[in-house]
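>> received
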Amino acid sequence: MVFLLASLISLHLVTLAMLLIATLEKSWWIWDDSEIKDLWYNCFHDNSTETWLCAATNESDWLQSVQALMVLSVVFSSISFLVFLGQLITMSTGGLFYFTGFCQSFAGLTDFAACLIFTFHRKEILNDTRDLSKGYFGYCFILAWLCVPLLLVSGVMYIHLRKKQ
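>> returned
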């Protein structure tokens, strides 16, 4: 039981860290080695100063929905973790962690929706005239997709977890 609890807590913290990185870091779409776009900024590499110059993204309805869903996913996963810690202390023996599991599963579903929207509406989100085949998905997009099954699995594990002494 202690091993299951420790592994579930570590899985939760790892997925929460991955969600934060995927939401806040600057690599959702890469045009080439000198231009990166993410949910919040468009960044260009300046070769003369060897720095990244970033400007806010052009807002579109699809981009705002992806931003909102990713932030919701982080919020629900955080709430889920805090509620779980509270339930460990206050819940009576034999209780189930339903609320924690549902919050974590909902975080997985909102992350899934954000990834799907970005996948299928990237032309409108990127708002660029270039051919999409000249760019590729960045590591933050891949991290967001990796979080989906991890969040859903941990949510199901929380739902089936029963508090013991």
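>> The first helix runs from residue 2 to 24.
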